Amino acid sequence: MLLAYAIIILLLLLIVPLNHDQTIWAQQLSFGQDSIENSTNSFTQNRLDTIIELLQQAKQGSIIQLNLTIIVFMMGLAYVVFGLYIGQEQKLSVFTKRLYLIAYFALIIPITVIIVRYIVGAISSGVLDDPVLTVAFLLLIPVTASYVLMIVKTRHDILGRS
How many domains does the chain have? Predict the structure, then answer.
């Protein structure tokens, strides 16, 4: 008995969508070919909009990935230059010390500009839940540490001479 009720319910559930499809087909035939073309055009338009949105997201992701790669490479190179500067400091002439410092700041300043530009853009657009924004704030720590290290080193050199 229970099995019979289950079969009847299952058949009713299957019949209702079939009847619904017949109603849709009847409506489309009554409106003519324009209705079918409009629904096809609308469907195609929605798919194209979705594809364009996905391409824009992929482009933005590629730009973020490129910026992060540049930042990581330049930050590593800046720390290598700083390490060489500290390690060779006693043997370097004044001119070579200045070249090291110029190279160091030539690497750190663009990193700072990229990070600050991204943070300002994200905050001004109101996207505060962006995970890349968190990474940008975290990258400010080593950049700030770089400036602090160089300031402390410069002050130490000035105080050491006097």
Answer: 1
